[in-house]
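Q: Predict the bound structure with 1,6-di-O-phosphono-beta-D-fructofuranose.
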Amino acid sequence: MTSVEAEEVVRSSEFSRRRPRLDELDLSVGKRVRLYRMFYEHGPGGGVGMFLPIDHGLEHGPRDFFANPDAANPRYQLELAVRGRFSAIVFQPGIARKYMAQYAGKVPLIVKINGKTNIPPADRPLSPLTGTVVEAVQLGADAVGYTLYVGSPAQFDDFNQLVEVKRECDQHGMPLIVWSYPRGEAIDSKGGRDSLYAVDYAARVAAELGADVVKVNFPVFDRSKMNDQPKPYNELVLDPKDAMAKVCESAGKTLVLVSGGGKVSDEELLNKASYSIEAGVSGLIFGRNMWQRPMQEALALSERLRKILQQYSK
Ligand code: FBP
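A: Predicted complex:
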């Protein structure tokens, strides 16, 4: 998974690795019902989740579908989500409106209500709104997704936009899932977007701003950039589980989901899942690693992931 596996462990096992339980969170009834549907009634159950994101047509463009041309049709992901018994599927509003009706009630829906293309220069990342919380309610969503670029020069506008989305989520009893992604030159010069410093900070920022769930990347230890990180991260080398446990601890009562990234081998993905769930995350949100595989392969892999998660469900 990361170069860290082969590295020595400098500090270990001082992080709690405790997954927050839904019944111990201070949530409105609406949020609780919707989270329960995803984390208990669908997917692996028992408080852990397996989510299928498909907003890549917007974020990366159709080039992500070349690896598996069938995946260009959202029905492909819907079939995978239903047959693979996922906790929820993630769509932008335009796709949800055109494709969800036939699958209504079969798999929970998360509506992503901001996003951007990767065509303009990446110097001031900000995802404008693509929908509203009310639209997500109309579509029958069980959560709303929002990408926050932590550390971007546009962070001020991003915070203002997120605060408004959060207010609407609270009004409608809609759980808010923040894709908390460190981005921009400032973070690149402080160890990079996937450093423990960056991911840990991103988890905490989402918690501070009121996310119910935060989606983060798995922290990576890159020896060549270690010293660029602010203290004490510049000297903090943890094994993968401890690094993720540290991130979960920073997220506190905000449930943590770990994202997949570009396609990797089955073994690498299964390791990422095991380390994450042992560390205390509440679920996996793997996109390209699922639907860039042919259907039977993706279903077989989702079954293996489900088994890993179910060892930790309660
Ligand atoms: P993957 O598992 O395919 O990485 O999907 C997770 C995700 O957050 C998508 O929801 C989003 O489209 C994409 O990654 C954004 O990736 P990036 O910002 O790294 O280009």
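A: Residues 53, 55-56, 59-60, 179, 181, 259-261, 286-289 surround 1,6-di-O-phosphono-beta-D-fructofuranose (CB under 6 Å).
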